[in-house]
Amino acid sequence: MTFNGIRALELLKLGTRLANACFRKGQEEAIRHVVEGAGRLLLVQKTGWGKSFVYFIAAKLLRERAMGPALLISPLLALMRNQIAAAERMGVRAETINSDNRERWSDVASAIERDTVDILLISPERLANEQFRSEVLAGIARRLALLVIDEAHCISDWGHDFRPHYRLLERIVRTLPVNVRLLATTATANDRVMDDLQKVLGPELHVSRGDLNRPSLVLQTMRLPSQAQRLAWIAAQVPALAGHGIIYTLTVRDAVQVADWLKSRGLNVEPYTGETGDSRPMLEQALLDNRVKALVATTALGMGFDKPDLAFVIHYQAPGSVVAYYQQVGRAGRALDAAYGILLSGEEDIDITDYFIDTAFPTESEVSDVLDALETVPEGLSIPELMARINLSRGRIQKTIDLLSLESPSPIARQESKWQLTASDLSPAFWERARRLTDLRRFEQRQMQDYVNLRCGHMEFLVRALDGDPGPIRPPALPPLPTTADPVLVREAVAFLRRTSLPIQPRRQWPAGGIPEYNLTGRIPPEFQSQPGRALCVWGDAGWGGLVRDGKYRDRCFSDELVRACAELVAEWSPRPAPEWVTCVPSLRHTELVPDFSRRLAAAIGLPFHAALRRTEARPQQKNMANSIQQASNVVGSLAISAQRPPVGPVLLVDDMVDSKWTLTVAAWCLRSHGVEEVFPLALALTGKRE
Amino acid sequence: MNNILSSNTQAILLLTAPLIVSKGQEPADVLTMGQYKQLAGFLRRQDRQAGDLLTLQAQELLDECEHLIAPERLRRLLDRGFLLSQAVERWTARSIWVVSSSDDEYPRRLKQQLKDDAPPILYGCGDAGILDTGGLAVVGSRHVDDALLAYTEHIGWLAGAAGCTLVSGGARGVDQAAMRGAIEAGGKVVGVLADSMERAVLNREHRALLMRRQLVVVSPYDPAAGFNVGHAMQRNKLIYALADAGLVVSSDFEKGGTWAGAVEQLDKLHLVPVYVRATGDVGDGIESLRRKGALPWPNPETPEALAEALVPEARPENPGSRKPVKMLWDLADQ
């Protein structure tokens, strides 16, 4: 197929909306390579270089020659809105199918059927979904002309960013005939990753590699152990910085908290996380248009977000690897002479990245639990059936199933909705890989700490870690920022951390499959549900977490400070209709801890206390029950109304810790089925392990 | 087994296999066995191979094939590359392997016996090494009485105990009885399936045998393909071709797959000696097969006697020539 350079440039001008646009070094060659079918191509170019123009223009040129459509596989699709808009200007009909646009799926599927889609963008997880493959992908699979693999470093075990579903992609690439064009792109590939990619993508692979250095970035690192110190630092520094930027956190909770804090200080910021939902495009646009000072974001704001004049990227916590860090900080200063990349490192960083490392693979006992359960049932088991049989969370069961099913040969396969054992055992290579990757993640974590400790030479360190050539180093174009926090602001941040309360959303459904002994299935009738509740803190957090832990495990009594904090929380919350009395979740293990606290709280807010609920039998601790079915079964039937009939007015239902919410759900169900008007749960702490 | 396919195998799959990855998938206009044979022959004469159809220069080659098959149709089939990778993934996930007649791993016996008429693609699960061990093929009806099942199971047991592979179709009735006997004796078994391999390999009893390398299942039909009378009849050819001798335990007269398969051997293919049961009430089917030249089963009573009966020198030559005749089997009607 011959390449039409004039047409390609015309498309670029439409896409960029620049009448005098011209290709960057390497772009036109890459498009030509793909269109002419000259073999597989790997593009290693930093973010913002314009990789998307390569595949959109190539896809368009192929379509103009009556070839089949293209498929792009990328881990973070929601972030491709800007690119899709550029594609549309070039007349490329780009469609995506992801968890955020479920309502459009059938339209997209029929557009594929009508052959009016030029490029379909999906995630690797979507590709693994059997229903998607049979209902949507089949329409494109029989004449796919071009496969684009974005973030191709994920194919390599040595990539910093392990995504299990790229193993599937690796196998698909290995079996893909050479007459399907293949373009792989990544911003980061060290030598080891490149070796792997060569192996998977084939010896004929052509590589186009650009420069990694970002000379405009002024990088700085500092350790500020407590969250309050970092909150104070950001509140002091961000208003003084020129331009607009991103503040990255490791968790959704931190993003929301940092944003709330900065807003309380009068800063115009918004949180942006995987849970932000529909307002994500609006928030991206607000940052693009400089209508917010910053977005406080998790990595959900990542690949594909392109703001050339982004003036700063601040990390509230250190990510798990320098490659991940380079990708995030590399969003700043693309079209500026100077921009800040500041990394704050706190005491919880290692705990958080440890958690990601430790939970990345199922344990040997999780794997044997799942395989043993499947062994006993020749017809196979669905996920809810597995949950009823094994005491693992849905998430852990799903993760175990996902990773096992991505093995090749796989020890399990799905036939309709049930998982069955196949004629292959799990290969020891599975565990070797898990160990090797865990070791690699540990190495990356240490390397990140080395970066945090640097006094100078930050960019050089990053480029070398990526096996790039640092080239000539320029002196920083901006002065360094202060490395300490203002003590007055730190005190205010502590007070802020203690002011935050967290919502407890009521459960509305009995667990999948129901609880047959009590004939409870499906939806919990609204008249038996609780109202939304509140929790004072997160177990072990920087605000009240420490005091709650001391009360529960050291003093065996919750302090008066916590009573006052909860009383203030209730006053601020002011649930309606206002509670007329207080009760609590009883325990046979610590009979006085929660009732004592609840009585003192009732007194503090001027309401009567009634012990309306009692335990009918001792059960294993709820925190040892790992999934909904186990938790709900464990608590149903163990709670009952005490002999004395409860008052019928609205009640505040107190417990110390909330995990799965099943205890609160069942307690509310008991109370309401005895005529209590409304139930408002209040807990001291949320524990992390929630489904 | 990782199903890394050669470009030849990829091309043969693209041209001839339905590549079923979902229910209700629109069927592709794949080449019939006859068309594929012509194409393969043409390529061979040009000193080319199927894999060359996938390269950059394929366009010219496709145009040269025009006198056989419309280049547009070939291109449509070859454009299914991504679908192929999806199908291979589905097979691999179920521990199913695939080989083409261009692969070294393709069972030698099938190529020797069937020559150009060997199915271009073979799917399987389990130890492919068993496929080249020959053995005794046992075929018969699905619906037979308990006495006949016991008789068949005993023959399977003798074969197993004699270290002689048992080849069968895996259907209910005679097939499964023979396989049960052989397994019981610790012998090796080949199941030549006509449909639903995908389900068969997940079956719990099969799974244990597949993993112990006692059983291999094979089929020339897509693992997701459902039951089809034509396929069930035609796979008999493979059962005979994989064995050193065949035994028909029971057969309808002038109907059914067992009958058609045995008659095809006796009248046309002559791949292996065909025995028929020679004790008890054998019925019209068996009687007629005798008249067509089937040999009476000598009813060996010990494993040693059975092994001896199957030694080529010891057995009488089947009448007729051994020239292969055009195959009936057509992959296109899947």
Protein model, in words:
The complex is a heterodimer of chains A (691) and B (334). Chain A has a 7-stranded parallel β-sheet with strand order 3-4-2-5-6-1-7. Chain A has 4 domains: 5-209, P-loop containing nucleotide triphosphate hydrolases (Rossmann fold); 217-349 and 445-487, Rossmann fold; 357-432, Winged helix-like DNA-binding domain superfamily/Winged helix DNA-binding domain (Arc Repressor Mutant, subunit A, Orthogonal Bundle), CATH 1.10.10.10; 501-686, Rossmann fold (3-Layer(aba) Sandwich), CATH 3.40.50. Chain A has 25 helices and 22 strands. With 691 residues, chain A is an alpha/beta fold. The model of chain A has no long low-confidence stretch (mean pLDDT 89). With 334 residues, chain B is of the alpha/beta class. Chain B has 2 domains: 7-93, no CATH class; 128-326, Rossmann fold, CATH 3.40.50.450. Chain B contains 14 helices and 9 strands. Chain B has helices spanning 7-16, 33-45, 58-64, 71-78, 81-93, 108-114, 146-161, 174-184, 197-200, 204-211, 229-242, 257-269, 283-291, 303-309; strands spanning 97-100, 121-126, 136-139, 166-168, 189-192, 215-219, 245-248, 274-276, 295-296. Chain B has a 9-stranded mixed β-sheet, with helices on both faces. In chain B, helix 3 (58-64) packs across helix 4 (71-78). The A-B interface holds A 37-38, 68, 71, 133-135, 137-138, 140-145, 147, 168, 171-180, 378, 380, 405, 408-410, 413, 415, 420-425 and B 1-5, 7, 10-11, 14, 21-23, 25-26, 28, 54-56, 58, 76, 78-86, 88-89, 92-95, 125-126, 198-199, 201-204, 206-207, 210-211.
